[in-house]
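STRUCTURE REQUEST FORM
Protein name: Pentatricopeptide repeat-containing protein
Source organism: Arachis hypogaea
Requested output: C-alpha cells
Priority: standard
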Amino acid sequence: MLKLRVHLDVETYSALILGYCRVGKYEDAFGLFRRTRAKCWLLDSTSYSELLAGLCDIKNSEAAVEVFYHMALNRCSLHPSSYCKLIKCLCDECQVNKAINLWQLASCCGTSCCIDAHTTIMRELSKSGKAKDLLVVLSQMLVAGCNLDAETYCILIHTMSKQNQVKKCVLFFNMMINEGIVPDPGKLFDQLSFIANHSQLCMISSAIDKLLSESDILNSAMFGLLITGLWKEGKKHEARRLLDLMLEKGWLPDATTHKLLIGSDARETRSQDILSIDNSAAQDTVSNILAEGLGET
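Status: completed
Returned output:
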C-alpha cells in the first residue's frame, strides 16, 4: 500500500488556524499555534491578529499573552484592534502591571498603540489609586507622540483631584481646554467645582475665556459656580462680566449666587459711606440687575 506523507508548512498552519478562528474554535487554533511555535515558525499577520482577538473574546488571557510574547519577541506587529482587546482583557482581570509590560513590548515591535489601550491602562491605574504610575504612563505616551483625548484628560484630572493635587489638576485642565478638547457637561462641572473649591479659578481664566468664546457648553449652573467662585477670589470684574453674559442668555443666578453678590455689593456701599443711591443712577450695579430679574426680597 502506498502511503503519502503530507508536510505542512507555515502557510498551511496559518490557514488552518485562521479557519478554526473563523468558526469560533479558538482553543483548537491555539493548539496549532503551539505546534508552529515548536518549529520556530511565525504566523502571518491575519491569523495572528484573529487568534489573539479570539482568545481574548473567550477570556483566555494566559493563552493570548503567550501568543503575543512569541510574536512580539520576533518583531511581529499586531493589528491595533486586537492589541486593544488584549490590554482590555488583562485590565478587566486586574492585571494592569502585565498590561503595562505588554504595552512597552508593543512599542518595540512596531505595534501601533491606539488611544483606547492607553486610556484602559490609565483608567485601571486610577481605580487603584496609583497616581505616580499614571504619570509614568502619561510621560511615555507623550514621548511616543500620542495625542490625548477627552477621556484621558478626565482620568488624569479625576485622579489628581482624588489625591488633592490641585496644581496638577489646574495644569491638565488648562492643557485640555487649550487643545480644544472639552469633556461632557457633567465632568466639566465636577472639574470646575474642584478648582473653585480650592480658590484656583484665577489660574484657569484663559481656559474659561476659551470656553466662553468657542463653545456653548457652559450652562446656568456652571455660570453660577464661576461667578460665585471668582467673586470669592476677589475677581469681581470677571464675575460681573460673567453675570452680564449669563443674563444676556436669559438665565438668572441661583439663590446662593444672588445672596452672595447682593450682600457683597451692600457691604461695598456701606464702606464708602453712601447713604442713598438713586435707582435711576444705579441701573448697572450687580444688586439692581439681580433685583430686576429676581424681584426685591
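Reviewer notes: Confidence is low (pLDDT under 50) at residues 273-284, 293-297. The CA atoms of residues 214 and 283 lie 30 Å apart.
Form closed.
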